[in-house]
Amino acid sequence: MRLAAHLPAAALLAATFAAAPAFADTTAPFGAAPFAAEPAPLDPVVPAVVQPAPALPAPPALAPAAPAPAAPTSPGVGETLRRLPAVADGWTLSGEVDTVVWPLYLDGAAVARGGRLVFGIETAVSVMPEASTLVVQVNGRTVGQVALGGGDARRLVSLPIPPAALSAGWNAVRVTANQRHRVDCSVDGTYELWTRIDPAVTGFVAEGVRPVAGLDGLPALALDEDGRLPIRIRRGGALDTRALEPAVEIAGALARAAATRAPVVTVAAEPGTGAGIDLVAGDADTLAGLGFDPGRFGAGDPRIVVATDGRPTLVVRAGSPDETAQAIRRISEASSPPAAIDRVVRLDGASEQSITLADFGERNEQFSGRLWSRSYRIALPTDAVTADYGSVMLRLDAGYAPDLDPDDELSVFVDGRLVATVPFGKGSGEVTQDRRVELPLSAFRPGLNTLRIEARLVAPEDVDCDPHRQIAGNPRFLILGSTRFVVPRLARMARLPDLGATVGAGRAGARAEEPVRIALAGADPATVGAAATLYARMAVSGADLPDLELRPLRDANVRPGTVVIGAAGDVGPAMFRQTGLEPPAEGHGWRTGAPRSDTLVTGAVNGEDAPLLDAWRSRVRTGDGYLDRLTAKVADYARALRDAVGLGEPPGAYAVPETARLVLAQALPEGADAPVTLVSAPDPATLAAAVDRIAEPDRWSGLAGRVSLLDSTGGLVAVAAEETRFVSTGPMDVANVRLVASAWLSANTAIYGMLLLGAGCMFGLATFAKVKRSGVRLK
User: Fold this and answer.
1) Cα(247)–Cα(235) distance, rounded to whole angstroms?
2) Going by C-beta distance under 8 Å and a sequence separation of 6 or more, which residues neighbour residue 627?
3) Which of 421, 464, 476, 629 is surrounded by the most beta carbons within 10 Å?
4) Residue 186 CB neighbour total at 10 angstroms
């Protein structure tokens, strides 16, 4: 433990657990003062505006105070609801403390008027209303808090937002749920605490909102009831892929300019209704066929036309690739949310980089509950080689209170996998600065990673579960915004196949400069819409808009770097085999059968237990003797050695479960430097609906391995690649070659061991030869 490395931080750490008045809620994000011991609760039936209540000198009685004055909730006459967008954090706040941040774009006129934030909330019955609050902040300023729990499970609440709290452009709406259990003060009880936000009725309500009429207003487009952005590509007659290519690429640019993370693209001749935007793109004949006068629109000059119902249409007259590129440049001038609002920090891996919690919008935070948890998303380069040639260092500035359970600890998870623990072993408590916690680099993956820090903070007083202590509990944990992750320089070379590092990162192959080639197995509106949604989602995932090549699928001999999309019957069995899947049986959408159990499958799939049991039987040894253990170890090394030199058995075909709604599969053809990817479903309608769902932020970030499945419950299952190959993504300097070699050896320990053994033998032989020549004889 090192103290006083920085005097202000050390003083704050030391003062945290000194004798002090009790706190009712100690999370206080962005450095705000802890909340009063008992905030005035809201009327459980009539939503209300809540102001922070004054602190009370002693734990209050459990009877609720009088409700605050009621305020309007749903939009009134002349008011418009701007829904909040879908984000990777989802719409549910779980546990004793959880936070979701939404980006909200407002123009200068909207800021001057101000408005209200309206939330539709549903809370678990186990939440104690006297000790649970929903805290709302806008741009770091607390604008209100709402009591959670109580009578009705569902209700609407409204908080007035003054113009002074808003900024022209991007705003951060941060919602933090602080929840305590009514009767269970154990760690297990914290998993019963949740509050759900209803995206259909949640958003910013303001008067005098006008429809989007210019390109600079694209981030303010109306969203649907799930926080997604519907984009309708209007196209009449037969759907020609070459003619559609510019419109689909412009739809990707439109999704990026609107800063959505959940685009939903459809194709139809008639205009759309409700939320979203229509897109009319093509030559003069295309515009005229859809009822637009081509003479009103300049070539390559996109314009927005607003219909009588208020739904905007983006009209782009583009009859050549140059005009299409000019229109895309114009559309792409809109800005994206800052990293602190987007909640993702992106690294280039070129040198050692340090990321503080403040870079994620976090500041000093105190906590008085039993289980603190917070997630952070870090995006590594898609060609990063992650293996045990280095480590990510968590440098912790934190403290914990005295008299906690000896088994309490801080745990660090990477993509759901436990990678490190720090025990809270001192009964007198502890404050630390710059405590180093090593996280294995092999636990990370190219592309997006989710790191979760979790602190277990059980105390003897929890056995009594005194409600007064629940309301006025002293802080048990403190973490400072100066806590940071230090990421070393990364080896750069793609390792394929990997859906997360390619499709999930907005590219079809290893190199970002290569175009995204999409081969359509069908020309129906559902398949074309699914392909357009997939491209739009890839477009918002990468650093830049990828070029698009849209072609019909002629046969299974497609170029490497191609994404094939279509219903199973349209794709054909050859394409399934080429991407490592068993072809579906005749007359069925998918082949019935239990899938194989692979590295990243976290449980039995489709209700079949045999693969999981077989995998465990292979790990359990029946013999306990030294010879049995030695034989097993030699067999493991021999198998690893065969796989490393390419003499192992090739991976078998993967049988898609019959209950799967969508499959993404990827294979790297022999001698190719880019994979072939298949996206398929039982039928076109299911394909379109499933691609819409997998494009949502919380599912898209789960793409990984050589196969990803969307099951009937909406869950995502990833299957790791059994064989991968390195593919160069750029010039190789000496330092990068050294890092790549170290990564390869760390992943192939059998060869590494053989090389060490061989080097030892050669050293021994050289020593023997030298001694023999020198004439020294050993007696």
Assistant:
1) 9
2) none
3) 476
4) 14
Comparing CA positions, the residue from 502, 513, 559, 516 lying closest to residue 249 is 516
Query: ∠ CA 650-656-659 to the nearest 5 degrees?
Result: 160
Q: What is the tens place of the pLDDT at every residue in 28-66?
A: 332 333 323 333 333 333 333 433 333 333 333 333 333
Radius of gyration of the chain (CA): 29
The answer to whether 367 and 98 are in contact (CB under 8 A) is no
710-734 residues labelled b (16+ CB within 10 A) or e (exposed): beeeeebbbbebbebbbbebeeeee
Query: Which region, left, alpha or beta, applies to residue 300 given φ > 0 means left and ψ of -120 to 50 means alpha?
Result: left
Cα 686 from Cα 280, distance rounded (Å) = 26
The DSSP-derived string for 698-736 is: HHHTT--BSEEEE-TTS-EEEE--SS-EEE--S---HHH
Over residues 323-354, the pLDDT tens digits come to 999 999 999 987 777 766 778 899 999 999 99
Does residue 232 contact residue 278 with C-beta atoms inside 8 Å? yes
Place of tokens 């909640």: 343
Query: Could you tell me which residue, 72 or 659, shows the higher pLDDT?
Result: 659
- For residue 664, the surrounding DSSP H or E stretch is strand 662-667
Reported pTM: 0.81
- Contact 441/414 with Cβ under 8 angstroms? no
pLDDT tens digits, residue range 547-565?
999 999 988 789 999 999 9
Instruction: Place 152 in a pLDDT band, splitting at 50, 70 and 90.
Output: low
From the number of C-beta atoms within 10 Å of its C-beta (0-12, 13-18, 19+), residue 515 rates as middle
